[in-house]
Amino acid sequence: MSDKKTHAQPPEKLTGIKLIDIPKKAVGTKAIQSALNHVFSETGISKGISLLKNINQLDGFDCPGCAWPDPDEKRAFLAEYCENGAKAVAEEATKNRVSPLFFATHSVQEMSEWSDYEIGKSGRITHPMILREGSNNYEETTWEEAYKLIGEELNYLKSPNEAIFYTSGRTSNEAAFLYQLFVRKFGTNNLPDCSNMCHESSGSALSETLGIGKGSVTLDDFNHANLVIVMGQNPGTNHPRMLTALKDTKKNGGKIITINPLPEVGLMNYVDPQNPLKWMGSGDKLTDLFLQVKINGDVALLKIILKLMKEKEMKQPNTVFDHQFIKEKTHGIDEFLSQLDNYTINELLPQTGLSLEQIEEATELIIKNDKIIICWAMGLTQHKNGVDNIREIVNLLLLKGSIGKKGAGTCPVRGHSNVQGDRTMGIWEKPKDSFLDSLEKEFQFKAPRKHGYDVIDAIKAMHQQKAKVFIGMGGNFISATPDTEYTAEALKNCSLTVQISTKLNRSHLIHGKQALILPCLGRSEKDTQETGEQFVSVENSMGVVHQSNGHLTPASKQLLSEPAIVAGIAEATLINTKVNWSSLITNYDLIRDKIEATIPGFENYNQRVREKGGFYLPNNARENSYTPTSTGKANFSTNLPSDIILKDNQFMMMTIRTHDQYNTTIYGLDDRYRGILNERRVIFMNSDDMKEQGLSKLDKVNLTSHFQGEERKAIGFLVIPYSIPKQCTATYFPETNVLVPLNNKARISNTPASKTVTITIKKQ
Length: 764
Ligand SMILES: Nc1nc2c(c(=O)[nH]1)N[C@H]1C(S)=C(S)[C@@H](COP(=O)(O)OP(=O)(O)OC[C@H]3O[C@@H](n4cnc5c(=O)[nH]c(N)nc54)[C@H](O)[C@@H]3O)O[C@H]1N2
Ligand SMILES: Nc1nc2c(c(=O)[nH]1)N[C@H]1C(S)=C(S)[C@@H](COP(=O)(O)OP(=O)(O)OC[C@H]3O[C@@H](n4cnc5c(=O)[nH]c(N)nc54)[C@H](O)[C@@H]3O)O[C@H]1N2
Ligand SMILES: [Mo]
What we know:
This protein is an alpha/beta fold. The chain has a domain of 213 residues: Dimethylsulfoxide Reductase, domain 2 (3-Layer(aba) Sandwich), CATH 3.40.228.10. 34% of the residues lie in helices and 17% in strands. It binds ligand MGD (2 copies) and molybdenum atom (MO).
């Protein structure tokens, strides 16, 4: 092995920034142009057109871009796509190939010096590859040899709990179901997934308060809402098709409040890509009231709103609260109302960075309307009090009776396109007993009951050498997780790391003693098994389960489908398994029959998934029933505002996505909607703060994070003056993951607090 260091972080060198004016609107012609450029340059014109025709059509494949749902019936003529969805499929359909020759030419250490952008652009992996102990280069292997090695390493462990089985959220229902079944038959619940870093706070908060960890609204509810509040979310970039739903709310007379430290372009003005007549104008104004809250000021803000609501209701009874709903459907109102007195508006207000008048205006809108939807994403979940944020949202909706009826409810906007489905299929380190009971019954085995490791605990276990084999079903663990250098040490401690992937990423380069890359089919590709072509199914953010059919020729003949890979590993690992894995994958209907037999809501799965647009899973909150909670009613809760106190020269840093990335996949180096071209190493700052720190535009700075006496450093970022509240800053993920301490995490959900990192900034 060469002595040179392999790099767990992207290189520090700058790429040559260019600043442009921040656009006044999102989507429109520029977006279409950008989408087509990406698609055609990655795939060529004819393949590109065929791709775009098939995204999210009823007989096409599910866009891997995000989990936002498609209209139940109608689909746009050319394609129900968006700029970033088009980029996501172009990444997968790229002409570039990472072949055995490529790996022979480039050592692991050499590739680790490349940027994430360069690594990703290398292309699709074509063959199963092995990195033997002590070697610098991956070599071609066979599927049989790979499975055999995994089986041997897993069976060599003292306990099944020494293995970790990660999942990213693109995995189909069929693959996820087989994977968790294999892992539990092997004997562990160590099934961490990307959800742990994503909407886990939403799941925890919603299960406890409403009895279901998923959102309650459907797409149609946006047509009926009279107020939509969008908190901690940047849909213009991350869920562009959601802007159409917001536009529908406005068209029907509804109002929109946006709560965000940044005036994100997409939420301010938007042009419908499906309406060419409007492409030239300045767009439709979406946000009616923008509250530029400080990072992590949301609980304080919601508490002020709740206090103002209570005050008005006391003064003018029956003008604010929905008493009938509260009485019939909820639990804990008295305690909830009385704890609001523990805080004064004066002490809460500075945490929000807002004026009381602005908050009163928002409260007025909330009081006046009773069909309210609240949407949120990572701006709320990735904080120490991430679960509190969401429970406070639920409190507000409960007071207004704004749930379980048309035009109202909770809308956690999911990230990965099947992250919700994977959870439904049992990818969870804390499975419910009822789920394990039915697995045991159907598959005749004793399922492990001890809860497994989530992402943070998995990293600690590998670091402490309590876990020695890591298998990743998709994703890019080293770049997605916090505390990059610590996590790299953890992975390097493993005896075997296995990545089931479509494309090359940094997790292939930060590895255990031995490593495997198992290349799989992507969503857009044909999946042919013994009985012919197969389709898979996925669940979107609103609980609709539907088909996804790939049409493209696979990137290489060697690729296997995810279900086939799971079956191969299971057969090589489990002795006397009783499940006939290879026959299950001859026809995915057989897997779906097993899902139907074990998971509620999947009755007649094979028939209903073939119906146009799929089917809705049961959702108690949508039906206005809260019986699954511990009290049998919707629970009010008591929540804590931020307890982070910044010293004078300290700043709060949130790590966010650019317009040109999909999590750790970097499509390009621009963040067009924020006026930045060709650079990812930037830090957005308030210009008054810059003055106080003696900093000018484009100064080069180093960042240090501070947590419980520990320091972590990231070198070389350019300062960008930006519209952001004082003492708040923003940088891009994954460049600054090295600054996020592993123990800086949300209470209850254990989600890394990647949006509240305390830093100091020093000029180079
Ligand atoms: N094109 C594209 N699409 C994607 C992804 C992608 O990377 N690229 N990722 C997918 C995934 S997995 C996910 S989870 C989603 C992520 O979707 P988002 O959650 O929209 O993604 P982030 O960039 O993390 O944006 C967080 C937003 O929250 C705001 N914010 C940060 N801190 C706070 C706070 O304390 N309070 C409030 N009110 N706001 C705050 C930020 O300013 C930013 O606008 O998108 C999915 N879709
Ligand atoms: N600092 C900071 N860290 C964060 C976040 C943040 O906002 N800030 N966000 C967090 C969030 S919300 C999430 S969801 C996680 C994301 O964490 P992950 O899901 O682990 O990361 P991705 O970048 O989405 O994974 C990309 C890789 O998945 C593989 N891949 C793509 N498609 C397929 C497929 O169809 N099958 C298989 N098997 N592999 C495929 C490709 O090889 C690609 O390189 O990151 C988290 N990390
Ligand atoms: Mo996510």
